Amino acid sequence: MTLDRAAVDRLRARLQAYMAKKGLRSTAQRRLIVDTFFEGASHMTIEDLLTEVRARDKGIGYATVYRTLKLLAECGVASERRFGDGLSRYELADDAKAHHDHLICISCGTIVEFEEPRIETLQDEVAHRYGFQVTSHKHEMYGTCADCQKKVS
Amino acid sequence: MTLDRAAVDRLRARLQAYMAKKGLRSTAQRRLIVDTFFEGASHMTIEDLLTEVRARDKGIGYATVYRTLKLLAECGVASERRFGDGLSRYELADDAKAHHDHLICISCGTIVEFEEPRIETLQDEVAHRYGFQVTSHKHEMYGTCADCQKKVS
DNA sequence: TTCCATGCAAAATATTTGCAACATT
DNA sequence: AATGTTGCAAATATTTTGCATGGAA
């Protein structure tokens, strides 16, 4: 689920605005990490991203990647996800599109995104029923993807 | 969401059968921890349960509670849940009833269970659309409960 | 008597933070 | 020059495991 050019530009602008507002600085490390994150696969862990980043600059530290991803999450450019394997994963935020949720293959780790507006509607209904004001939600299905089902087992 | 007597008996029987099959032993600690778990509130953390258990027997160790909950989860008597605060929580399994999901108040920590069969149906539809064979799912909504909304903020 | 269970302490996992040196503005 | 940033190491926070001792069967 790659974002189109316009969406990417919007996110980059948001980051820039946030950094300006906060008086944060543009460093070589930050630029490299951010670029790598934007270009790389979705749902990467900090470790994943660190590996890719180090391929381009060996000196980058874990904490810098960690802090940069945190920064991206803070300003709404990235979303942190946890899929139960104990690792935090990050994906580009995409508020231009409807909220999506995830199907996770417990065999190969593949993560598929899905959208189902009718579920969102029912969710709202449930929240209203309990008087909750919902700020975020998590809807994940764990199982075996089509490919892994074929591989017998 | 307390279970009725019959459901509890069923779960206890399942545990007993599992232990017998595996040659596991009934110890005073295990009995105490299991009883406390069955009688206590839902969604307790290991630490919560340890506190309650120690009120009855000071000598119980964290690891024993940890291992007992793991045992309960293994045989399907308890379900482990994680609601994003970094702690594992446990609730009694209840396969007699429809699967339930959770509303979590990010202000006071209250956890409300809900059931919405229509969401389950749509879920199945989505999984089928992607060829996934779903074995479990997680559907959580985070926000502010009715009470906390009143407390202004 | 055998072998599982317990409690303690140590290890393992991941995340988060303190700090001196360094870089941006 | 002032202040934010980096990388390293240490601190956290939890969960998980090793092991000698104790207990169930």
Helical stretch tally of chain A: 6
Largest interface: A-B, 34 and 34 residues
Largest sheet of chain A, described in full?
3 strands, antiparallel
**Which structural class do the helices and strands of chain A define?**
alpha+beta
Oligomeric state of the chains in view: homodimer
Distance between the termini of chain A: 29 Å
Following the backbone from N to C, one meets helices and strands of chain A in this order, namely HHEHHEEEEHEH
Mean pLDDT over all positions of chain A: 94
Give the low-confidence spans of chain A: none
Assign a percent range to the helix content of chain A: 40-55%
Rg over C-alpha atoms of chain A, rounded to the nearest angstrom:
17 Å
Number of strands of chain A: 6
Proportion of strand residues of chain A: 15-25%
Main location (chains A, B): cytoplasm
Protein name (chains A, B): Ferric uptake regulation protein
Subunit structure (chains A, B): Homodimer.
Organism (chains A, B): Polyangium sorediatum
